[in-house]
Amino acid sequence: MRECKEEIIIKGTFGTPEVLGYINDDIQYDKDTKERIISVGRVHFGVLYAIPTDARVIEPNNQLENGQLKKEIKQGRLMKINELEEICKNPNWEVETWTQIALESIKRLL
């Protein structure tokens, strides 16, 4: 819940979070190694939660922090599951593997 409140603005109420699963993606699927950048999957272990909400608007929390505009999330909004699937399948979009893994669990939930 702390991460949600830190990184996004939810204009609505929160329900009780439910753990959907865990993400441990040690395999390098992206192009990061060519640029000498370590991907998130190689250095983090994830917990995937579903958090019920009555919100109609969820957006990145791009507020000032220490005089700098905080931009951890470039863009975000609520989407339909078929929109997410299309983004993950589209070769013109670079989607991190954690998102692809999470999508399968979300589809099972819905």
Question: Overview of this structure, please?
Answer:
The protein is α+β, with helices and mostly antiparallel strands and 110 residues long. The protein has one domain. Helices cover 29% and strands 19% of the residues. The chain contains four helices and six strands; from the N terminus they run αββαββββαα. It has helices spanning 2-7, 40-43, 81-89, 97-109, and strands at 8-10, 18-23, 46-50, 58-60, 64-65, 68-69. The strands form three sheets. The chain has a two-stranded antiparallel sheet with strand order 1-4. α3 runs antiparallel to α4. The two termini are 21 Å apart.
Reported for the largest beta sheet, the result is: 2 strands, antiparallel
Number of helices: 4
Spatial strand order of the main sheet: 1-4
> What string, H for helix and E for strand, traces the elements in order?
HEEHEEEEHH
Average pLDDT: 81
Number of domains: 1
Helix content: 25-40%
Low-confidence stretches: none
> What is the chains' assembly state?
single chain
Distance between the termini: 21 Å
Q: How many β-strands, per DSSP?
A: 6
What is the molecular shape? globular
Could you say which structural class the secondary elements and strand pairing correspond to? alpha+beta
Computed over alpha carbons, the radius of gyration is 15 Å
Strand content: 15-25%
